[in-house]
């Protein structure tokens, strides 16, 4: 029987790796110290695999085919997707190892649990969604990954309730398999930010702090009690917080906020959290 031994959440703003020095020194240090703590905890947990949940920014899916959820099952994943993006993110392009057996199990379990995700059996390319947080958490790319994509880039998106319940399904799926005894879940996205909009560079600190308080409460009802319009007030990029809801469902517990900084220079309300398992 497998077990989720750790659940973490993090923003994936390109500035975290691409232009960290644009942030104020205190902001940068707080975020980088929190990532260092996550890396330390993950190394102590020694997981057999990481189920990494994020959005993707029209790197693989487009408006003609934009699934609500997708699960990737390949042996490896190329990221960043192009040399140009690698240079922008300042992340060396590489192959990230996959965990096909766990991914295939998760896909089948999802279907049996009345979810209908897309299955990506071939190539899935990474952008900042996974490359940025993994550069801090697993810089040598040794941990096998099962990438999970949720649509948090183009409304209509799955409801917050549906995302939380998808996370609960992930926990049950992990416990029903023996391919990976020890599993870490990572949710990557958000918080408030505007992408390609006139408001780009703004941060809705009030939304961010309220959202983090709900994560810290561990109260499912408070976490799912959002309308699409409420999230939109924190920017079109704020829809990425669905990745945190999936992580919360996988944890089934309260979270601690390891860092929060409203970094306008990174165009993002930047936060890192860990479940109190």
From TrEMBL:
Residue ranges annotated for the Extradiol ring-cleavage dioxygenase class III enzyme subunit B domain, each copy included: 7-258
Top-level lineage group: Bacteria
CDD domains reported for this sequence: PCA_45_Doxase_B_like
SUPFAM superfamilies: LigB-like
GO molecular function: ferrous iron binding; oxidoreductase activity, acting on single donors with incorporation of molecular oxygen, incorporation of two atoms of oxygen
This protein's name: Extradiol ring-cleavage dioxygenase class III enzyme subunit B domain-containing protein
């Amino acid at each position: 029987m497998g077990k989720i031994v750790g659940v973490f959440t993090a923003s994936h703003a390109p500035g975290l790796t691409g232009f960290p020095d644009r942030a104020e020194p205190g902001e940068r240090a707080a975020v980088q110290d929190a990532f260092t703590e996550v890396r330390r905890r993950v190394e102590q947990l020694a997981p057999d695999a990481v189920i990494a949940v994020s959005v993707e920014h029209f790197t693989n899916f487009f408006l003609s085919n934009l699934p609500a959820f997708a699960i990737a099952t390949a042996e490896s994943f190329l990221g960043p997707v192009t040399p140009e993006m690698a240079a922008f993110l300042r992340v060396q392009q590489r192959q990230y190892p996959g965990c096909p057996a766990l991914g295939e199990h998760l896909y089948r379990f999802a279907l049996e649990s009345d979810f209908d995700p897309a299955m990506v059996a071939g190539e899935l390319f990474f952008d900042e969604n996974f490359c940025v947080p993994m550069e801090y958490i697993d810089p040598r790319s040794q941990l096998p990954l099962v990438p999970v994509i949720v649509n948090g880039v183009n409304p209509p998106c799955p409801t917050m309730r549906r995302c939380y319940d998808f996370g609960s399904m992930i926990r049950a799926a992990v416990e029903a398999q023996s391919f990976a005894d020890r599993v870490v879940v990572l949710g990557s996205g958000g918080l408030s930010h505007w992408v390609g909009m006139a408001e780009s560079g703004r941060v809705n600190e009030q939304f961010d702090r309220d959202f983090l308080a709900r994560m810290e409460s561990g109260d499912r009802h408070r976490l799912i009690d959002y309308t699409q319009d409420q999230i939109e007030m924190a920017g079109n990029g704020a829809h990425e917080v669905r990745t945190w809801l999936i992580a919360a469902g996988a944890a089934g517990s309260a979270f601690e906020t390891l860092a929060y900084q409203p970094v306008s220079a990174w165009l993002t309300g930047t936060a890192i959290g860990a479940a109190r398992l």
